[in-house]
Task: inverse folding
């Protein structure tokens, strides 16, 4: 049997936890997570929580995995229900072990194409496997950043391929004027995450988006440009907004900010503009 992580640390934002122990007001719900959980697992998580002395107050972890092909897919697909602590703690499994984990995740509701699944297993078995490469070899590519590929690999897992989102869980990015709230808002969401109650195109959301600060400055600039000119978003309709460059992103990256700060900023911008 494969190893079980010693410290089960379910992401505090998973709805299960808010059912078990009332979550702090800022904790975000992930209703799809609850829906995906068979009762027995809910109980398992409960036991783990009680043993851990109430992990409900543990901060969301921002765990960095070694760079390598396929990492973006793991960041994009494996943080919807829990943080990467689980993956970190299962480090050392071989391809068969990781394959078994993905079977479990699919039974919890993860949907992956065969191609995505193969890439994720390849990545995990190589970089989180039983014989990881000694130093994180320069696997990150020098190719120019491709907005469409970055969106598919990092964002579509939650916001969906057509960017229409999922009702009450993941807001739509399609036809969303918030992408133009300010020059920097979109880049800040990507760099620092976003959490707490928001209204998007008339729908209510109170959830948490993790930070994507593992993306490079050039990648984030490319993603911003891509989103602002696809999915019915029209950058040309906002001539007042100068194009965001990689240099701009480097400046934003240096700020001390987290998901709550970005939401406070959003509240301010929305209040000003509407
Ligand atoms: C639909 C929700 C969901 C998504 C998305 C998800 N997981 Fe999980 N994962 C769970 C649940 C629930 C558990 C806890 C199971 C338990 O308590 O034993 C878990 C536990 C784990 C564990 C701990 C070992 C185990 O089997 O209990 C690992 C490793 C893991 N997940 C890896 C991944 C990877 C890799 C991905 C991305 C492909 C992923 N998860 C995406 C729901 C999810
Ligand atoms: C793990 C799921 C997940 C992934 C992956 C994800 N997001 Fe999000 N995103 C969310 C959630 C949840 C919210 C809403 C947060 C809230 O309720 O405060 C959100 C909100 C946003 C918003 C704010 C929308 C608005 O109208 O204010 C933007 C912009 C955004 N995401 C962009 C992105 C981009 C770009 C990517 C890819 C780099 C991405 N997201 C990846 C979950 C995700």
Result:
């Amino acid at each position: 049997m494969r190893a079980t992580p010693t410290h089960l640390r379910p992401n505090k934002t998973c709805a299960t936890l808010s059912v078990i122990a009332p979550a702090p007001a800022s904790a975000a719900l992930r209703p799809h997570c609850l829906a995906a959980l068979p009762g027995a697992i809910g109980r398992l998580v409960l036991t783990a929580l009680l043993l851990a002395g109430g992990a409900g107050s543990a901060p969301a972890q921002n765990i960095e995995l070694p760079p390598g092909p396929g990492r973006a897919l793991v960041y994009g697909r494996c943080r919807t229900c829990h943080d990467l602590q689980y993956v970190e703690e299962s480090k050392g499994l071989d391809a068969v072990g990781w394959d078994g984990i993905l079977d479990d995740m699919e039974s919890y509701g993860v949907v992956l194409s065969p191609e995505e699944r193969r890439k994720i297993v390849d990545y995990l078995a190589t970089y989180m496997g039983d014989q990881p490469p000694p130093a994180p070899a320069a696997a990150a590519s020098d190719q120019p950043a491709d907005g469409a590929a970055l969106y598919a690999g990092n964002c579509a897992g939650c916001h969906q391929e057509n960017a229409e989102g999922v009702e009450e869980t993941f807001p739509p990015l399609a036809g969303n004027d918030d992408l133009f709230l300010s020059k920097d808002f979109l880049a800040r969401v990507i760099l620092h995450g976003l959490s707490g109650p928001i209204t998007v195109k008339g729908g209510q959301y109170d959830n948490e988006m993790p930070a994507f600060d593992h993306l490079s400055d050039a990648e984030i600039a490319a993603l911003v440009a891509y989103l602002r000119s696809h999915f019915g978003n029209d950058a040309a309709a906002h001539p007042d907004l100068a194009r965001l460059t990689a240099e701009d992103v480097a400046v934003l990256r240096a700020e001390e900010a987290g998901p709550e700060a970005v939401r406070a900023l959003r509240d301010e911008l929305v209040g000003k503009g509407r």
Remarks:
- The first helix runs from residue 15 to 20.
- Residues 5, 8, 33, 36-37, 41, 44-45, 77-78, 80-82, 86-87, 90, 101-102, 104-105, 108-110, 120 surround heme C (ligand 1) (CB under 6 Å).
